[in-house]
Design goal:
604 residues; five-stranded mixed beta sheet; DNA primase DNAg catalytic core, N-terminal domain; DNA Primase, Chain A; Dna Topoisomerase Vi A Subunit, Chain: A, domain 2
């Protein structure tokens, strides 16, 4: 097959002299820059630099390995790929025969689903929201009871030994007879990357356990090296530049039906090194979108742990957290669910966020000894990455995060190894202090933060336009600070200015408390900080003052989980850790705003 013929299957080409011209299939363009030269035997894109011969084009456009591309071209040309030895020829023939039996079984299961035996299964699939088009695209089927498949395939001329090897039937030593391996189950055909059926997954409609089973592994099927839905997702991934990894068959099918044609799933196991390599062949950064329950959280954690040593420049993972109790299948079928899933995918978090959250920030660092332990974890985590360049950048990133959250000296070679601390550290600032100056004992931080929040409101009364509800719920110890807050709320009105508010508070007997509060240097109160900057910083500091309860809940959940390991306990612990991490991220935003504001002010 000629180069132009092969490429014309994917690209509309127009002849221009000795060459053919078209839109490049490897990047988005409106003006053709993709040329094909049949005489010289290569294609070249002047836009993105893609270049190669016919085999390279098939490998790149269809995400195939070299042998797979050779087979694809041979099949399109009606030729057989020559085998290099009698053993390889025999094995190729055997695999072809096994594939034929599996294909015949798949067709049988499909027919059963559309007939009277599969009525209950078809009703079940319809209740799960699947239409006839998607059922046909994924070739879903029904396996009847007894030995209907074995009887059918024996009549078709497939020997019993072949059916055993293909995993379609089993053999009972006790009764000395064979039986259908899949019985009374909905069938999900499992195909290889080229769409050839190599195995089956099956789900019971009743209470039988296990709920899902897969074909036994054999010559054609190795579940740790395959991804469900890959043949369907390859084209979608090539178009979107994305690959979405979910947990189960129904998640994949539901997403494809909703227009997410780039979804795949592992086959009932945690992601393996082989599956990660397969994903990275298709896209640089697959998106892992697991269920919003404890099992989904554990699956994400295992995937992050498995991927870390394998990272390479440009090759990573990102993660989506579904709402608690949701999975892609249920979520995408809800009203507005397609848009919600699309938004979640667009906001996927990088792997480094999950690594920091699960392996570093999940552990308390509220004492010097615990912070020293955290430093050890940072180094140990970075050392697990085999690629030197990625290891170095991860070490720098993790140390930078440590610095932003906790301050202190870091490790050589990392950002924290410099004596420069986070933007407020040189001034004795801590997250939640709203720009307070001067050293202080740890036990005084909550009160200083509370005073800073009050000072910001007195100096900028207009903040209460947006912050009135939060200010009203600000928890303060009983006494003068809480009384001052109540008097501010009682006095405030939309047009009141700072001087009027101060005069009223002094006249009402709060002069002493007001003086102590206004002694705090709060940058959010400065008139040359925008009201939007001040409002955001106030919210961040409010959140941080509220985080002590969340931290206590995390510590309580850790103790309970150590005594009694349950899914509910794990979900509660992870939710608490996410809340604490989110509050710390707010602190980073606040410190960055403060730093940029002060930097700009100094330049003036």
């Amino acid at each position: 097959m000629g180069l132009v013929d092969a490429i014309s299957r994917r690209v509309k080409l127009q002849r221009k002299g000795r060459e053919h011209l078209g839109l490049c299939p490897f990047h988005n363009e409106k003006t053709p820059s993709f040329t094909v030269n049949e005489d010289k035997g290569f294609f070249h894109c002047f836009g993105c630099g893609a270049h190669g011969d016919v085999i390279g084009f098939v490998m790149r456009s269809e995400h195939l390995s070299f042998p797979e591309a050779i087979e694809r071209l041979a099949a399109q040309a009606g030729l057989a790929v020559p085998q290099s030895s009698p053993h390889e020829r025999a094995r190729a023939e055997k695999l072809k025969t096994l594939g034929s039996a599996l294909e015949a079984a798949c067709a049988f299961f499909e027919k059963q689903l559309s007939g009277p035996p599969g009525r209950a299964a078809l009703d079940y699939l319809h209740r799960r929201g699947l239409d006839e088009t998607i059922i046909a695209r994924f070739r879903l089927g029904w396996a009847p009871e007894r030995n209907a498949l074995k009887t059918h395939l024996l009549k078709e001329g497939y020997p019993e030994t072949l059916l055993l090897e293909a995993g379609l039937i089993g053999h009972s030593e006790e009764r000395n007879e064979s039986y259908d391996y899949f019985r009374a189950r909905v069938i999900f055909p499992i195909a290889d990357a080229r769409g050839r059926v190599v195995a089956f997954g099956a789900r019971t409609l009743g209470e039988a356990t296990p709920k899902y089973i897969n074909s036994r592994e054999g010559e054609l099927f190795h579940k740790g090296k395959m991804l469900y839905g890959l043949a369907h997702a390859r084209r979608g991934a090539a178009e979107s530049g994305r690959l979405v990894v979910v947990e189960g068959y129904m998640d994949v099918i539901a997403l494809h039906q909703a227009g997410f044609n780039d979804a795949v799933a592992p086959l009932g196991t945690a992601l393996t090194e082989a599956q990660l390599a397969l994903l990275w062949r298709l896209v640089d950064e697959p998106v892992l979108c697991f269920d919003g329950d404890a099992a989904g959280a554990r699956a994400a954690g295992r995937a992050a742990e498995r991927a870390l040593p394998l990272l390479a420049p440009g090759k990573s993972l990102s993660f989506v957290r579904l709402p608690a109790g949701e999975d892609p299948d249920t979520m995408v079928r809800e009203e507005g669910g397609v848009g919600a899933v699309r938004t979640l995918l667009s906001e996927a978090r990088p792997l480094v966020d999950l690594v920091w959250e699960l392996e570093i920030a999940a552990h308390p660092a509220d004492t010097p000894e615990r912070r020293a332990k955290m430093k050890e974890r940072i180094e140990a985590t970075a050392r697990r990455i085999k690629n030197d360049a990625v290891q170095k950048t991860y070490r720098q990133e993790l140390w930078a995060r440590y610095h932003h959250y906790y301050g202190g000296q870091g490790a050589k070679g990392g950002l924290a190894g410099k004596r420069e601390r986070h933007p407020g550290a040189r001034r004795g600032l801590e997250p939640g202090s709203v720009g307070l100056k001067g050293p202080r004992k740890p036990e005084t931080l909550p009160r200083l933060g509370q005073e800073g929040l009050l000072a910001a409101i007195v100096s900028r009364p207009a903040l209460l336009d947006q912050l009135g509800e939060l200010f009203g719920t600000l928890e303060l110890p009983k006494g003068e600070l809480d009384e001052l807050r109540r008097e501010i709320i009682k006095t405030w009105k939309p047009d009141i200015d700072t001087e009027a508010l101060k005069n009223h508070l002094v006249a009402s007997g709060y002069g002493s408390a007001l003086a102590r509060v206004l002694a705090r240097d709060t940058w959010v109160a400065a008139q040359d900080a925008s009201l939007e900057q001040a409002t955001r910083a106030w919210r961040h500091s409010y959140d941080l003052l509220s985080s002590s309860h969340a931290t206590r809940e995390v510590e309580k959940a850790e103790r309970e989980l150590a005594e009694n390991m349950t899914d509910e306990g794990l979900v509660r612990l992870q939710a608490g850790r996410r809340e604490v991490l989110a509050l710390k991220e707010h602190a980073l935003d606040h410190e960055r705003d403060e730093f940029l504001f002060r930097k700009g002010k100094r330049r003036k």
